[in-house]
Each structure stands twice: as structure tokens, then as C-alpha cells.
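Notes from the 1:1 (GR / supervisor)

We went over the backlog. Supervisor wanted to see one worked example end to end before approving the batch request, so GR pasted a single chain during the call. The sequence is below; no edits were made to it. Supervisor asked that the structure be written out right there so they could see what the output format looks like.
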Amino acid sequence: MEECSAMKARTLTALSVLNDLRHAAYEALERKHRYPALLLLYSFIDICASLACEQPTVNNGTRFKSYVNRYGHTSGAVTVEDLWAARSTLLHSFSPLGRNTESGAARPIFYFAWPETSEAVRAVLDSKGYSDYLLLDVGHIKTISIWCFNAFWRRVQTEPDFEEVMLQNSEHLLKDLFQHGLEMELTAIETLVAKAGEGNRAS
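Structure output shown during the call:
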């Protein structure tokens, strides 16, 4: 595949928004705010899936699971069903338990991070009566988010048709004043370059 010659203005601002979210999640992790970081990481994956969605009629769960299944490189015992349930219960009730885990469609996910050990956290969870759960290093979710973003970035760079899909999906993406200004400046440059190209072809 050949790389696109240049990304469009709104593509660059959409990537800027994603980078803001990504860095906010990483900063939260560095400050040991692991659960706020997890909220940001799951949301980040969800937004990547939304911007990349080529079937606008699918529901949120299908979109998220399909994207993570394709790009997230999940391994071991965790499934996309488990991750979707974890994303939803954390976002809506800040809990590992919810409708999908109670029905048996997914297992609840608990987390640990350095300096904790999986053994110490598991011992506490077992003592509280939890069973049939998954225990993941928070870094595992971070790694999945990296894979998901890298795939998004690669497709934007190399597939013009995918970039058009992303542009449609990002039409109303929230941006701050700087990003709005950047997009307007880049759009103006795009227009000037296009007019110069038309002039060269006419001469």
C-alpha cells in the first residue's frame, strides 16, 4: 500500500484530539490514578472504534468488540465480551459488576498495578467472596489501547477510502479553541495548495 501524500485538515485535528485523550490516560497512570486512567483508556478505544466504523448502523457494543477483536491483539483468557462488559460497568457504575457479568455473558475484570502483586490482590478478592473473575495488569489495557490506536493511525496514513470514512465519523468531534483554529489554518493552506495545483495544470 502507498502512503497518502497528505492528510486532510480535519484528519489532523481528529488525531490531535485522540492524542490528547491518550496522553491524559498515560499521565493519569503515571500519577497512579489507575481507575480514572482506565476510564480514559476504555473511552479512548471506544472513540477509535467509533471513528473507524464503516457500518454506521451497528450498535456500540458490536462496534467496540469488532474493533478490539480486529486490532486489539487480545491474548490469554480475556475476551472482547469481557472487555466490553468491563468498559460498560466501569463507565456507568464504576464497578466490575453489571448486567453482562451477572448474566454470565462475561466475567468481571479486576485490576492490579505496581507495586501491587496479582497474588496479593487475588487473595483480597477471594477473601471477599469474589469468584470466576479475571485479574489483569492495568498495563494490559494500556497495551490494547496502543494496538488499537496504531491500527487507526496506519489505516489513516495508507488508505484514502478509510480516511474519508473517518472524516464522516468525526464531523462533530469535540475540539478545543486551539484545535478549531488549527483546522481552519490547515484548511486554508489546503485551499491554496489546491488552487496552485490547478494553476500549474492550466499553464
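Supervisor's comment: The chain is about 70% helix and 5% strand.
Batch request approved.
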